[in-house]
Design brief:
- The structure holds two protein chains of two kinds.
- Chain A is an alpha/beta fold.
- Chain A has one domain: 3-Layer(aba) Sandwich (Rossmann fold), CATH 3.40.50.
- Chain A is 28% helix and 37% strand.
- Chain A is built from five helices and seven strands, in the order βαβααβαβαβββ.
- The longest helix of chain A is centred in the first third of the chain and has 13 residues.
- The relative contact order of chain A is 0.23.
- By secondary structure, chain B is of the alpha+beta class.
- Helices cover 26% and strands 22% of the residues of chain B.
- A five-stranded mixed beta sheet of chain B has the order 10-9-13-11-12, sandwiched between helices. Chain B has a four-stranded antiparallel beta sheet with strand order 1-6-7-8.
- The chains are: A alpha/beta, B alpha+beta.
- The interface between A and B is large, with 50 and 51 residues.
Chain lengths: 137, 402
């Protein structure tokens, strides 16, 4: 499993402009299991950006942005000039290959390869993952 | 995708083994399979190489993912598997380093031989091949959005960019070879293999839906019917084992007619509305309908529509497209080890149900997608969505088979 963290909303907004026509694409595998992506976060991010005056046109939930065929099924509208990727770094890299004319903004920081384990601590907190090795981003 | 490459030669692997070792081969069915260093076929290649060299491979274990420790623990406790794991002295994991690390923790008394090195994350691409985009910090490589090919990565890190003996075709080892006759042609097959496997291994096309190479068959789709000399009636070839001297017919007008009728009955059992199905043109049932020339429904579908279960955040279950082949149940048992799916009710009312007749979200589902990628129709499909408009309204995106 590839572990990720949410990037702060302010950092994402710093890279956006109110004139941008934005699509959001979210991975529905590793980031969902890391609680940093998937349908819920994509919808929350879209709502917040729209409330703050950004033009979020549409959003796509795909299983593996790190596999080509999933991108090939997305028919991006012609006016889209900015993509927000909710994924690990490989999804961001794949988006920049598929949409070379778009600004690609990452909504996550990639950490590394992790295992997911759900162990409940004495305080009742769920200890959910264990990092193994960090990736360069 | 997590990118791993082979770290040792076959000769070096053999140096770490003894002929007395009882070896379990273990592989993930996700990242390592996509990058070409794992999955069922790669395990079979390694199994055959080791067995040909006199090593004792006692088990091949395919798991949906190895980065969820609960799934590994299940294997250790599983009543049908624990004996093999207790007996094993060596486990050879075809997993990323996360899986290898977990195996070391969960099986501390076994020798766990690391044959793959994980180097970072990247992309699996049909056009560009597998590429590494973000290497690990401790490696002397820089991130590259365009990707570094497996060949270049292997060269820079002194690793191998192909699996063991990549050029060798998957050979079907004949454990106890016997001679049988299929459609008048004498062939060899393994005694004890199913007739369906023997037919497919020898290049004879027999239609099937409930059988897969990994999961085996359950004799429920009744499409793999064949005639066996000396046996009464037509037999489901996935349920009969090979015996010396068997004479089998896989193709004649009568078999085609029965298979076609069975296929029409499967079509009539649910509401298969291909035009609006996310698996249109990617459906094994649809492919067989075309292959067997079914042009009309002679049996009417008279049931109402059953409610869909879209409670899972990873996939959707539409019982109206389910042919009850049980591949999802076996994938959940065998690959996920969750035993979360079962057949519920009887006859016309039969359906696949998670947990104790709850929905997917409330059940013990690990969302590993093993069931989804095992499904031959659009009954289980990836949760792929497009949201747009003022209301941010969701609509379906078409899914993919792996």
């Amino acid at each position: 499993m590839i572990g990720t963290r949410d990037r702060k909303y302010a950092k994402i907004v710093d890279e956006l402009d109110k004139n941008n026509n934005i699509s959001i694409i979210s991975c529905n595998t590793c980031v969902r299991l890391s609680d940093t992506g998937g349908e819920k976060r994509m919808n929350e991010l879209a709502k917040q950006l729209r409330e703050d005056g950004f033009n979020v046109v549409d959003g796509y939930l795909i299983t593996y942005p790190c596999k080509d065929e999933y991108f090939e099924n997305i028919e991006l509208k012609k006016n889209i000039d900015t993509i927000i990727m909710i994924s690990c770094a490989s999804g961001v890299a794949n988006a920049s290959y598929y949409y070379p004319n778009c600004k690609i903004v990452s909504a996550n920081d990639s950490r590394g390869v992790v295992v997911i384990e759900e162990k409940i601590t004495e305080n009742g907190e769920v200890n959910k993952r264990k990092k193994l090795r960090r990736v360069k981003v | 995708m997590i990118i791993s490459l082979r770290s040792m030669s076959y000769q070096d692997l053999k140096k770490q083994l003894s002929k007395d070792d009882k070896i379990v081969l273990w592989s993930c069915d996700t990242c390592v399979k996509h990058v070409g260093f794992g999955g069922y076929d790669k395990m079979t290649i390694l199994e055959n190489m080791l067995k040909n060299d006199g090593y004792n491979v006692i088990k091949k274990e395919l798991i949906a993912v190895s980065c969820v420790p609960d799934m590994i623990e299940e294997r250790k406790k599983n009543i049908a598997k624990k004996d093999a794991f207790e007996e094993a002295t060596v486990i050879i994991p075809l997993t990323c380093e996360a899986g290898w690390d977990e195996l070391k923790e969960i099986f501390p008394d076994k020798k766990i031989i690391k044959v793959l090195n994980t180097v970072g994350v990247g992309i699996c691409s049909g056009k560009r091949g597998t590429i590494l985009t973000n290497p690990f910090e401790d490696l002397d490589l820089e991130p590259n959005p365009k990707g570094i090919s497996m060949k270049q990565t292997a060269k820079k890190l002194n690793l191998y960019d192909t699996f063991f003996n990549e050029d060798e075709q998957i050979t079907t080892e004949k454990k106890e070879p016997v001679e049988i006759t299929i459609d008048g042609e004498k062939v060899t097959a393994n005694k004890g293999d199913t007739l369906l496997k023997a037919c497919l291994d020898n290049g004879f096309k027999v239609p099937h839906l409930c059988y897969t190479k990994v999961l085996g068959g359950d004799a429920v789709c009744r499409l793999c019917l064949v005639k066996v000399e000396g046996m009464r009636g037509l037999v489901a070839s996935c349920s009969i084992n090979v015996e010396e001297g068997m004479k089998i017919t896989t193709d004649d007008d009568e078999l085609t007619e029965y298979r076609r009728i069975n296929l029409e009955l499967l079509l009539a059992s649910q509401n298969h509305d291909c035009l609006f199905c996310t698996h249109n043109y990617k459906c094994e049932l649809q492919e067989l309908v075309n292959d067997l020339g079914v042009e009309d429904k002679n049996f009417r579908h008279e049931k109402g529509l059953k409610p869909m279960d879209d409670s899972s955040m990873a996939f959707v279950y539409d019982p109206n497209k389910c042919i009850l082949c049980t591949r999802c149940i076996r994938a959940c048992d065998e690959l996920a080890g969750k035993h979360n799916l079962a057949l519920l009710h009887r006859g016309y009312d039969s359906t696949i149900s998670p947990g104790l007749d709850t929905n997917m979200e409330k059940s013990d589902c690990a969302t590993c997608l093993a069931c989804v990628f095992a499904c031959p129709t659009g009954a289980l499909s990836e949760r792929m969505r497009k949201f747009d408009g003022k209301e941010w309204k969701p609509s379906k995106l078409h899914g993919y088979y792996q």
